Amino acid sequence: MDWGMENRLAQLIQSDGHCLFLPIDHGYFQGPTRKLEKPGETIAPLLPYCDAVFVTRGVLRSSINPANTKPIILRVSGGTSVVGNDLSDEGITTSMEEAIRLNVAAVGISIFVGSAYEKQSLLNLARLVDEGEKYGIPVMAVTAVGKELEKRDARYLALSSRIAAELGARLVKTYWCQDFDKVTNGCPVPVVMAGGPRVDTEREVFAFVHDGMQKGAIGVNLGRNIWQHENPVAMIRALRAIIHDGAGVDEAQEVFTEVRSGE
Predict the structure, then answer these.
(1) Which CATH class for the 3-262 domain?
(2) Most buried by CB count within 10 Å: which residue of 27, 61, 76, 189?
(3) Predicted TM-score (pTM) of this structure
(4) What are the counts of helices (DSSP H) followed by strands (DSSP E) for the chain?
(5) 156: part of which helix (H) or strand (E)?
């Protein structure tokens, strides 16, 4: 691995081998998502506790202070919206030259295995990896599933994650599921959790994150479970305790309660 690639990965994955990424790229297909209408204000109190921010170039330029930020993972795929015909019909929206200008630590792209545009999205990933390797910029592949998450089991997510790794992704962002070790065991590059089935309490979030870490994930890329929560700082600090301090579910709940009480 060359120096630039290794250096960028070291910015993202901390010395303990774990990471907590904060995604705020939802607007690229959803528009002004609830509690992300003003992304700069939303993430300001959360920045001290995340390891990187996953964001589009427009929001990066307009909403994140270049003098006060964490490493950036740049969302570079898109071209569709929630009111369009098919979210899987994505292309690459941002050049690698732009990523270099923005001094990012990595770029991220969605793949849609099993969709009508499977081949297109996988070839998008392959081309992006070619460019990333040329300039020493790691690519994070996102195994997108949309509204069909409840139908996607370990077998499907393991398939998608392995294909992403085979095509050269340096990191894979995928969803937590039952038997999550089947996903991580079949993926030869680091796996980051993107969330899981819809839950109603913060304790359920702590439970699936803890389970995923025990089963081979290196960390999380969680957005709405953090910044849509009524107590986002308490939430991210509790998750950080699981990811970087090895806390269990009960300990994370204690951190959450303590921080919430002090907010």
Answers:
(1) alpha beta
(2) 76
(3) 0.96
(4) 12, 10
(5) helix 154-166
